[in-house]
């Protein structure tokens, strides 16, 4: 990829599915370079949610190149995802008026619960739908659809590998799926994948959520949605071990209903 950088730069892929992220080194300094990152990145940098944005430039191909500070740290483990610091970071994201305003300005998509449900049910594998846990989850999705009364900025992909701990701070990276939607969408993503009935109360307390019956319904609904989506993707790619893992996560989620 031609980035039109000055002589003296060295680049190597930094991982990721899109192949658009690179570790750049110039004058013994490391930088995280990315092609066509969302313009929303500037607001995330201001809020200290992602590593600091250093510069942005457009190259002759029309691509936009961004450079962020490179932080040597560690991603969170699965076992660390229910820590209070994760809940507090989500609360910061969801309650930020700057992030909401900036995402609207750049035309951020909106997560509509009914559209999410319809997309999930389209071509859903019939053999999976026969599983008891899956049948129950599909029925729950059909029985009731959340009404989104408050829209927040939702990260949309809260895999533990997207959390970076460095220099005593926690950062949330990889914002390719950011959208406006129900904050319960993000909360359920973490809780369904990494928590259980014993860890959920403390997590929601750290988030400072008002836990009522409506929030509980939304968390279970979005939890079903996330796990069903995971299962559908795993089945389409013939990853039977991942399908089995999601079934175990369903057992945890549904035991708390």
Automatic annotation (TrEMBL):
Residue ranges constituting the Aminoglycoside phosphotransferase domain according to the UniProt record: 35-211
One of the Pfam families matching this protein, by short name: APH
Keywords (A to Z) from UniProt: Transferase
Gene Ontology MF terms: transferase activity
Entry keyword annotation includes Nucleotide-binding: no
PANTHER family on file: CELL CYCLE REGULATOR CCRZ, PHOSPHOTRANSFERASE YTMP-RELATED
Protein name (database record): Aminoglycoside phosphotransferase
Species assigned in the record: Lacticaseibacillus chiayiensis
Upper taxonomic lineage: Bacteria, Bacillati, Bacillota, Bacilli, Lactobacillales
């Amino acid at each position: 990829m031609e980035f039109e950088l000055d002589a003296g730069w060295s680049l190597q892929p930094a991982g990721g599915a899109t192949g658009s992220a690179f570790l750049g080194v110039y004058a013994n300094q490391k930088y995280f370079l990315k092609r066509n990152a969302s313009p929303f990145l500037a607001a995330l940098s201001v809020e200290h949610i992602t590593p600091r944005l250093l510069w942005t430039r457009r190259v002759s191909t029309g691509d936009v190149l961004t450079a962020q500070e490179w932080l040597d740290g560690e991603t969170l483990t699965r076992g660390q995802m229910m820590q209070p610091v994760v809940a507090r970071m989500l609360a910061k994201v969801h309650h930020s008026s700057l992030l909401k305003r900036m995402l609207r300005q750049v035309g951020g998509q909106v997560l509509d619960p009914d559209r999410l449900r319809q997309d999930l049910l389209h071509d859903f594998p019939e053999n999976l739908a026969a599983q008891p846990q899956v049948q129950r989850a599909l029925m729950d999705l059909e029985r009731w659809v959340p009404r989104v009364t408050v829209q927040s900025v939702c990260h949309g992909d809260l895999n533990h590998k997207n959390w970076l701990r460095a220099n005593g701070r926690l950062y949330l990276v990889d914002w390719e799926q950011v959208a406006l939607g129900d904050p319960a969408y993000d909360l359920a993503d973490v809780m369904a994948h990494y928590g259980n009935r014993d860890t959920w109360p403390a997590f929601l307390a750290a988030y400072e959520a008002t836990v009522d019956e409506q929030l509980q319904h939304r968390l279970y609904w979005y939890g079903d949605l996330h796990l069903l989506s995971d299962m559908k993707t795993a089945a389409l790619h013939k990853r039977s071990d991942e399908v089995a893992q999601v079934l175990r996560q369903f057992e945890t989620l549904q035991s708390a209903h």
